[in-house]
């Protein structure tokens, strides 16, 4: 496979696709708070905002494939939300704000819920997923469904020839490209955190059981979680604050009883001044050695900035058994050699080849699963039975990664730290912040904060303080606009660099 970088092929730049404006209002990178201020004074309505985002979809989505379906009821919903506002009712900070959800999250409307599979086309869901119902109650405007791939894949607006990061990449690419204000994704192993970092977004992946999985097409009952994407920490937190909570249709959510803060999570967002009281751990051997040298250098520069703001940094706060639980490929299992090939399903579509791909007829012509279908078949053979071997493996994984892993690293032999700072490839409950752009590929990467179960309040506090420091200091180690490298490329492998 050719090692094409961003320096070859189509040239890109942040101004390639200027976002449409409305009445001199700049919507590019507009935050939820900024949009609400415009709507509160009458200079913008939900209908007008929806139309702006729809124009943006028509402008760029043919390149990134981030939206699989538009909500035919969106205009009617926006009109109703505007009427509520006109009558003096504003449900909250998400009132009238357009968003998309991953297409494995059920919506009881005219849209499909397919998980990217033709097999589910036309299926009928009994109700909205719990998280969708909560967002509707909060006044958020469901604009459409975000793509997840069966064969064709989404693309990152930073470099369209590279993988955008995982199963929730459609929603991440949409937010990164200003196609939506925020989005929901699902994570089993990295599918929120990886797309967030590879699209220069904030990603919040909460403790399993904090956000209900009811109405979400499942992958793992023990690991699935619903997370949020935003261009800022506050935007992602608004969505997260709206969707967490106990749901009788998901027993795992009962575990949060007594562990969530009265009044929600937004109250914990803070500025850089609180970093003077912070103590962060660097689990170098457990995580950092698996990042490339450039990523290490940039993230360490950002950590030096955090330290200069008064935070205490403690190195080698390791997971005690990291040598046992870390794959030879590192934590990035979705893209490692343990799957044989680098995501063979992730290819773009050649619309002109009439049923072939790469010059070959079926089955060689369609992107194959030569190294991945065996796992699917083995799963079918199990018939859903969880036997003693399964529970032994589950117990080992839970102990070695949590009580005997993350919790032990946070305890740090009696010198506890507030959070672990890691490259965001571990697949655990974390918050990731945009931190830089790789010079060779043009792809973003992030810095993740990892805590113990139910520690979201603390993670939000520290992450918001670090983001405030990034914005106030003038550092380049933060979110940057998409460059659209390779936007004209067609029928090329999506590479996982």
TrEMBL record:
Classification via InterPro entries: Amidase_dom, AS_sf
One Pfam family linked to the record: Amidase
Domain Amidase span(s) in chain numbering: 49-329
PANTHER family to which the protein is assigned, alphabetical: AMIDASE, AMIDASE C869.01-RELATED
Name assigned to this protein: Glutamyl-tRNA amidotransferase subunit A
Annotated source species: Lojkania enalia
């Amino acid at each position: 496979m050719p090692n094409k970088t961003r320096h070859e092929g189509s040239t890109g730049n942040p101004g390639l696709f200027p976002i449409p404006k409305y009445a001199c209002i700049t919507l590019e990178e507009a935050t939820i708070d900024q949009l609400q201020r415009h709507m509160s004074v009458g200079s913008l309505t939900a209908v007008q905002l929806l139309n702006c985002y729809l124009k943006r979809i028509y402008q760029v989505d043919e390149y990134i494939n981030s939206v699989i379906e538009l909500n035919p009821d969106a205009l009617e919903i926006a009109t109703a939300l505007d009427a509520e506002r006109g009558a003096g009712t504003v449900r909250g900070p998400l009132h009238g704000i357009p968003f998309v959800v991953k297409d494995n999250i059920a919506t009881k409307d005219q849209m499909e819920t397919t998980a990217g599979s033709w097999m589910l086309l036309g299926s009928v869901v009994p109700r909205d997923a719990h998280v969708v119902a909560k967002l509707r109650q909060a006044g958020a405007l469901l604009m459409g469904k975000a793509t997840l791939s069966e064969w064709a894949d989404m693309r990152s607006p930073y470099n369209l020839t590279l993988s955008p990061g995982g199963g929730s990449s459609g929603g991440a690419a949409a937010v990164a490209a200003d196609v939506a204000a925020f989005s929901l994704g699902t994570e089993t192993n990295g599918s929120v955190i990886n797309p967030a970092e590879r699209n220069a977004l904030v990603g919040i992946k909460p403790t399993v059981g904090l956000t209900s999985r009811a109405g979400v097409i499942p992958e793992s009952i023990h690991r699935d979680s619903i997370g949020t994407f935003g261009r800022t920490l506050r935007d992602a937190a608004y969505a997260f604050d709206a969707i967490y909570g106990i749901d009788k249709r998901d027993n795992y959510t009962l575990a949060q009883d007594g562990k969530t803060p009265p009044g929600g999570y937004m109250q914990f967002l803070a500025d850089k001044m609180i970093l003077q009281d912070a103590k962060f751990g660097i689990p170098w051997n457990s995580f950092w050695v698996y990042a490339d040298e450039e990523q290490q250098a940039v993230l360490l520069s950002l950590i030096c900035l955090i330290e200069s703001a008064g935070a205490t940094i403690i190195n080698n706060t390791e997971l005690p058994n990291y040598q046992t639980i870390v794959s030879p490929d590192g934590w990035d299992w979705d893209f490692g050699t343990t799957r044989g090939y680098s995501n063979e399903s992730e290819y773009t579509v050649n619309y002109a080849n009439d049923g072939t791909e790469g010059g070959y007829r079926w089955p060689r012509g369609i992107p194959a699963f030569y190294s991945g279908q065996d796992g699917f078949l083995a799963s079918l053979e199990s018939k859903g039975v969880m036997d003693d071997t399964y529970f032994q493996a589950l117990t080992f994984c839970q102990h070695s990664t949590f009580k005997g892993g993350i919790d032990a690293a946070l305890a740090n032999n009696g010198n506890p730290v507030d959070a672990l700072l890691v490259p965001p490839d571990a697949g655990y409950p974390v918050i990731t912040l945009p931190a830089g752009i790789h010079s060779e590929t043009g792809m973003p990467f992030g810095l993740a904060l990892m805590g113990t179960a139910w520690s979201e309040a603390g993670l939000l506090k520290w992450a918001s303080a670090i983001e405030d420091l990034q914005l106030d200091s003038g550092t380049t180690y933060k979110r940057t606009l998409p460059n659209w490298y390779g936007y004209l490329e067609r029928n090329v492998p999506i590479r996982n660099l």
